[in-house]
Design goal:
The complex is a heterodimer of chains A (502) and B (334).
Chain A: E1 4-13, E2 16-26, E3 31-35, H1 42-49, E4 57-62, E5 65-67, H2 72-78, E6 80-83, H3 95-99, H4 117-130, H5 147-160, E7 165-169, H6 177-192, E8 196-200, H7 204-210, E9 213-218, E10 221-227, H8 233-241, E11 259-267, E12 277-282, E13 286-290, H9 297-304, E14 312-317, E15 320-322, H10 327-332, E16 335-338, H11 342-345, H12 353-358, H13 374-387, H14 404-416, E17 422-426, H15 434-449, E18 453-457, H16 461-467, E19 470-475, E20 478-484, H17 490-497
Parallel strand pairs in A: 3-8, 3-9, 6-7, 7-8, 13-18, 13-19, 16-17, 17-18
Antiparallel strand pairs in A: 1-2, 1-4, 4-5, 9-10, 11-12, 11-14, 14-15, 19-20
Helix pairs in contact in A: 8-17
Chain B: H1 2-15, H2 17-32, H3 39-64, H4 72-85, H5 106-130, H6 134-153, H7 168-175, E1 177-178, E2 181-182, H8 183-201, H9 203-213, H10 215-220, H11 225-251, H12 262-272, H13 284-303, H14 308-330
Antiparallel strand pairs in B: 1-2
Classes of the chains: A alpha/beta (502), B mainly alpha (334).
């Protein structure tokens, strides 16, 4: 009946329950869509299935037989393949070598050291023909292929493993319309061969068009499974976001002043990135930026901060047109950016709290000899720790030993030392426990009350609605709409977020 | 269509930029002093290139995985000393082993090459198992190899005297020729063909490119990364020590300082020949061309009377431009 059954799967990471009693049942020869907001646990569930994560609890059955999957190799051997968002291919090798990587046919038996190129070519050619991939030659170098063709090669590789289940994680995210059509043709031919596809995507129309069944997840929990023909975009959205607003936010009214920052027509040189983005931030305002993963929210803000290129667009600070080509310019213009990846681009893990605190403002501590004024740095650190209530044994503690919430507060403090007027916060509460979240919200409110402007990129709907004054919703690199937070709801935002999708 | 062709030409020039510049330099040298193009001189350059080709091909295996072997030069010295110490003529006064009989010429060579292969495999094991970056692992083995080799070289009765008086059947391998064709060039040719076969036709070779091109993809596809790394570092040690043996045969002697700095020439030749320092890209023909061009320039600059200090500067500029051009191909600004 089912080719795959995942029952009562639970998985925790330190501080977060990523999966809580999740069920997924997939029938052979069908496309099963897996849907949910960012962070709903779709990828975690798939990584458990593909042997990349181990489950804390739960049972996986494959063709009715209970199985243990401890590694990717075991998953592949069972007949489970995954097409990743970042393709796992070797750029300077041929199509056929990529497909048969690690399993090359050999001249004179499986122990022979010599690769049988002729057989490999023939096997690849017939595989490509079977999948109607006529424009790809077995000898083409991977790096000369388009993203769509490279993805087709990955699918061909999955088929060559005689996979019974192929997981596709956002397979259409970088494809054009025609290429998506082609992908669907391949998917249909896979279905006809009895292969089950688990299809992860945010694109509602695509899901309704290609899938047979839809499983929806929310906050790591299983919401339900429905036949696709019983669903509409509206019902899917409702089930994806239908949660109670349990998070609490500090109360407070913003006093919105004059214009502080304005961007006009920001466009990336990369055609797949942001296009024609305009927005305005006022003094004392908290402006939210919402959208799905891949909506290019981070990219736009990094471009404003000078970390990424933009080919068109103007930037105004306090009504004056300015140029911002790097983070140094941005700092001079009174901007501060808390990056999304706290560990990768935020903290210096093996440096102390003090060194992490003063680094963005280090020039201010130089005395006339060019040496650093230790007393002044220590005093500022002490003050910051007190003001933001950073829980650390001392200023000399290494930042890596603090909790995520306290690390984030240190990063806040780092930028506050530069006395910025404009704070750009990219997912400021990601991976932080509820208590620390509230404290971060309090800091944001205080900053706004001081007349600073705050931009917050967030994928958490309740946070967007509860904390901001207005929300710019982005979809596929464009601004889909600007809404007033008090007058909108989750469904309306989700609808805007999917406006240009698919 | 014409646009496309113009783009393609531009791409080609970009991809081969350093190669074209060096070719230009070769032409300039040949114009300044056309006598460099005489057959006898070209033959000399080819002979000088032969041991370097074998060494650079070994180095290529490591660079294909994004690393370098800094111990290569010292391994040349060790292989040269080991083989030379056992292959001196019976009537030579200062023999390393005064009582050693006439051993078959192949035995000391095999011993030297086996030691080199072992050191290479140890490097590979350290890189694979302890995740030590290749340049650190091989920096350490560079010191260790030089230390061991110097202790050996300093043993009585040799006491750090240069090893000379090598047997004719040994030096024939390095400096002899059959007709007009030098034996050592034949050696380099045979090694090149074998390396080409291994890299392009065997599972091991394809795994080397895979591990270098995308280690994650290789691991996910069930390739044994440790085995591949140990193997390719072993091949590197094998080829480099073979080039050391031939270097002793070619020059008719050996000291513990033989080969010092050769690894840098080998790395430079690989990079000039299009082996990418980011891993996964490189061909045998490219490396051979890289070595020959580099040797030609080396020889040619002396030939046209350029001050040796200036030669160093020119070589430095060549290497840094080669790598910058190479990196430009693979790194795009975000």
């Amino acid at each position: 009946m089912y080719v795959l059954e995942m029952d009562h799967v639970s998985k925790s990471f330190p501080g977060v329950k990523a999966l809580d009693d999740v069920t997924l049942k997939v029938r052979p020869g069908t496309v099963h869509a897996l849907m949910g907001e960012n962070g709903a646990g779709k990828s975690t569930l798939m990584k458990c299935l593909f042997g990349l994560y181990s489950m804390d609890e739960g049972q996986i059955s494959f063709n009715g037989q209970p199985v243990n999957i401890n590694s990717v190799k075991e998953a592949l051997a069972l007949g489970i393949s995954m097409i990743h968002q970042e393709l796992h291919l070797i750029p300077y090798r041929s199509v056929m070598e990529n497909i048969w990587l690690g399993r090359y046919p050999r001249i004179g038996g499986s122990k022979s050291p010599v690769v049988d190129h002729k057989t490999m070519y023939e096997m690849t050619a017939s595989l490509l023909k079977e999948l109607n991939l006529n424009t790809i030659q077995p000898t083409d170098l991977l790096r000369t292929l388009s993203v769509s063709k490279a993805q087709s090669v990955e699918i061909a590789k999955a088929v060559s493993y005689e996979s019974k289940i192929i997981i596709m994680d956002e397979p259409s995210s970088s494809l054009t319309e025609n290429e998506v059509e082609h992908l669907f043709t391949i998917i249909r031919s896979l279905k006809a061969r009895g292969v089950a596809i688990i299809y992860i995507s945010h694109k509602m129309e695509e899901i309704l068009k290609i899938s047979d069944e839809v499983t929806i997840m929310r906050d790591g929990k299983y919401v339900g499974t429905w036949p696709a023909n019983e669903l509409t975009t509206a019902t899917i959205i409702k089930r994806m976001v239908g949660r109670d607003l349990t998070h609490r936010f500090p109360s407070g009214e913003s006093t919105i002043g004059g214009e502080l920052l304005r961007i006009e027509g920001y466009t990336s040189p990369n055609p797949r990135s942001f296009k024609d983005v305009s927005l305005t931030l006022h003094k004392g305002e908290i402006l939210g930026i919402g959208g799905l993963v891949g909506a290019q929210r981070t990219e736009v803000m990094e471009a404003v901060f000078g970390l990424r290129l933009h080919s068109e667009g103007k930037l105004f600070v306090n009504g004056k047109e300015v140029v911002c080509n790097n983070a140094y310019d941005a700092k001079r213009l009174g901007m501060a950016l808390l990056t999304e990846e706290r560990r990768a681009t935020g903290i210096f893990p093996v440096l102390s709290v003090q060194e992490n605190l003063v680094i963005a403002n280090i020039n201010a501590y130089r005395n006339k000899n060019g040496l650093l004024n230790a007393a002044k740095m220590a005093a500022d650190t002490k003050k910051s720790i007190k003001e933001l209530d950073i829980k650390t044994p001392s200023a000399r503690t290494l930042i890596k030993s603090l909790s995520g919430g306290n690390q984030q507060k240190v990063l806040f403090a780092r930028w506050l030392l530069t006395v910025p007027d404009i704070l750009i916060l990219d997912e400021p509460t990601r991976g932080i426990d509820v208590g620390a979240k509230f404290e971060i919200y309090v800091i944001m409110r205080e900053l706004a009350a001081q007349g600073k402007g705050v931009i917050m990129i967030s994928s958490e709907m309740p946070e967007l609605l509860g904390m901001t004054d207005r929300i710019v919703v982005m979809s596929e690199g464009r601004v889909a709409g600007v809404v007033t937070s008090k007058e909108t709801n989750q469904e309306a935002i989700m609808e805007l977020a999917t406006k240009y999708v698919g | 269509m014409e646009m496309l062709n113009a783009k393609r030409v531009k791409q080609f020039v970009m991809d081969k930029a350093i190669f074209l510049v060096l070719l230009l330099l070769v032409i300039v040298i040949a114009i300044i002093n056309p006598r460099i193009l005489r057959l006898q001189v070209l033959r000399d350059i080819l002979m000088m290139s032969s041991t370097k080709i074998i060494m650079a091909l070994g180095m290529m295996f490591v660079i294909l995985t994004g690393g370098v072997d800094l111990g290569g030069g010292r391994l040349v010295g060790m292989a040269a000393v080991i083989s030379a110490s056992m292959l001196q003529t019976a009537d030579y006064v200062r023999r390393f082993y005064p009582d050693l009989g006439q051993v078959p010429v192949i035995l000391p060579i095999l011993l030297a090459v086996a030691v080199g292969t072992l050191f290479g495999m140890m490097n590979g094991l350290i890189v694979a198992k302890f995740k030590v970056p290749a340049f650190i692992a091989t920096l350490s083995s560079m010191l260790i190899i030089y230390g061991i080799n110097s202790i050996y070289f300093n043993m009585p009765p040799n006491n750090s005297q240069p090893i000379g008086g090598l047997r004719a059947d040994f030096t024939f391998l390095g400096s002899g020729s059959v007709g007009f064709v030098p034996v050592i060039v034949v050696f380099a040719g045979i090694v090149s063909i074998i390396v080409w076969f291994v890299l392009n036709k065997t599972v091991f070779g394809k795994n080397v490119y895979a591990v270098g091109g995308n280690p994650e993809a290789a691991a996910v596809s069930g390739i044994n990364i440790t085995k591949t790394l140990v193997g390719l570092f072993g091949v590197c040690g094998f080829l480099i020590s073979l080039s050391g043996v031939l270097e002793a045969a070619r020059t008719g002697g050996a000291t513990n300082n033989y080969g010092n700095g050769y690894e840098l020439d080998a790395i430079a030749s690989c990079v000039v020949g299009g082996v990418s320092t980011t891993g996964g890209v490189g061909t045998v023909s490219g490396v051979i061309a890289g070595v020959i061009i580099f040797s030609f320039i080396n020889y040619g600059l002396t030939f046209i009377g350029v001050n040796p200090y200036w030669q160093n500067i020119i070589k430095g500029v060549i290497i840094v431009s080669a790598v910058s051009f190479d990196i430009r191909k693979y790194v795009q600004k975000k």
